[in-house]
Predict the structure.
Amino acid sequence: MKKLSACLLLAAICLTTLSACGKASEKNDDESSVPTSSAVVSSKSDESTAPREDAGIQIDKKISLGVDEVRPLGATFLPAREGDDTVLVFESSDEKVLECDTKAGTITGKSAGTATVTIKNKTGEYTAETTVEVTDVLKDKTALFLGDSICAASVHDKDHIRWGWAGRVASYFGLKSYDNLGRDGASMSTCRGNNRIINHMNNARYNKYDFVLLHGGVNDAWDVIEPGTVSKSFNVADFDTSTYAGGLEEAIYYAKQYYKDAYIGYIFNFRMLSSTGRLSDMDDYYEVGKKICEKWEIPYLDLYSDETVFSELQKGGLADGIHPNSKGYDFLYPYVATFMRKMTFEK
């Protein structure tokens, strides 16, 4: 009997112990479900991705641009959240007036007028607009054109005698006035006696111009005059004017003296067919001419190495293989106008 009582007491103790263990286990299980610190961090992260109050696209409400001028749009974009795509896309309301290049981020003036640019971020969440006024810097300006018979256009421009590229630029883009002092047979060097481009410039030395365009070298090459070399001097007395190089430096020297406030530029003549002999290979004149322009910080229009110009003029644009006809001048004058405009943008 005593043995049975002892067994019952031991069993009761075991049951009490097991019950206590079970409660402890349940308590541990409950504690494991308490939110961890990582959940708290996640909550703070959500707060940090809230949109910025100052997010959006910023740009001037009005922009002025020149015809042929290329410029970065100038818009800035503060994204709503860190890490958002900052790429902007934009378009013009009138591509005849203003051209947009989203990939390059630029706008280009095409013709005088006004256009609206609409700017958006990639998702379209933010938009902005700006008004762009495009003006032509040639309008109401004055210009002097100097060169040989190709500049003069005295014979082969049947539609507009003596217009050439000079008259077309003046008429089609609204120059206030212009003088075309290109002369048949004129040279840079002394190979043609007094019929030199510098002498024709002297006849207009007291006039005021906004633009002065020099052109030449064809007759120097025709007479197989030495191309010459770039002088180390800026003193006009040191230039060898019996060469093309010396004559060009002299012309630039006096252009800078006479027309201190003008945009001065030089036009390299287009390349001609092999049937024109020396005129088809004026590489020596072209190379030394470029160096001279760089020395004097004179911008130049390179018609000589432009393959498009060479190709197009051969399609009925030359009257005799050398001189442009009306079709040829119609093709060339936009190149001259664009060059003149760019001189003003880059100075």
